[in-house]
Amino acid sequence: xxxxxxxxxxxxxxxxxxxxxxxxxxxxxxxxxxxxxxxxxxxxxxxxxxxxxxxxxxxxxxxxxxxxxxxxxxxxxxxxxxxxxxxxxxxxxxxxxxxxxxxxxxxxxxxxxxxxxxxxxxxxxxxxxxxxxxxxxxxxxxxxxxxxxxxxxxxxxxxxxxxxxxxxxxxxxxxxxxxxxxxxxxxxxxxxxxxxxxxxxxxxxxxxxxxxxxxxxxxxxxxxxxxxxxxxxxxxxxxxxxxxxxxxxxxxxxxxxxxxxxxxxxxxxxxxxxxxxxxxxxxxxxxxxxxxxxxxxxxxxxxxxxxxxxxxxxxxxxxxxxxxxxxxxxxxxxxxxxxxxxxxxxx
Length: 347
Fold this sequence. Notes:
The chain has two domains: 218 residues, Alpha-Beta Complex (Spore Coat Polysaccharide Biosynthesis Protein SpsA, Chain A), CATH 3.90.550; 89 residues, no CATH class. 49% of the residues lie in helices and 17% in strands. It is built from twelve helices and nine strands.
């Protein structure tokens, strides 16, 4: 591990950015972090280069005042843990290299820790991407934010924090063991951490005013499928540890679980109809039920972006089928000796 940068007076907040092959986006991220509404001396920025082979290292090094840590490629969980080891602030914030925090992001995130009971906080995505699938993904997130607002109103807390806009008290994060390093890629390692902290009784909150612009929403159906398949695959590891979260958490709409089941039934009926044609009735029924289940989302999406509203049923089907097949693949891998979902690992 190598470390570069200038040490200043002890900051109140440390912002940690894991970066892998981030040469195309890291400049925007660091420029936005340099333009925050809080005093520069109150926070530090640490970038952990996770073994990039592009120009990530050189681009980060060109930003004055940014501390650069490097490691062999090991994934974002390990990179964030390394950043926490070197962080000097009592509050550690996380964002991603393909994110551009709004100018008041740091101010809004840290304000939530004025409540001494708060151990962690989660912000929200915005996007400037104009691709149809990316616009759908943004509305998908906004639908989940509505769920989290209700959870905050009803229970004054959440159990799900994504690290594109996340914050924790450093002492609590360290005591918990940090991010689980069994996840070799960006997947659900942040979910696992927040589930763990919530299970330990720590208070986590949603801060919708703490916004970051994301340049990494899936741009096409193929990329969207791959992202959701990966999430489904690695969810197996999370649900083995927290089986109760399979039924409900503060981020996942309940209708999604029904849609995954209906999509799976429909796919099986379609395949089975080759051998027994009456299964086409099952395909038709599951299809009608699935389409009906999408109507609330379609209505919400139509009000924001009519074209997204029209295409939402198809994209929601892709989401459900990708998550379901990913989860099935994760289960199959977990049952095999040495399967990747079942390896032991260190935090």
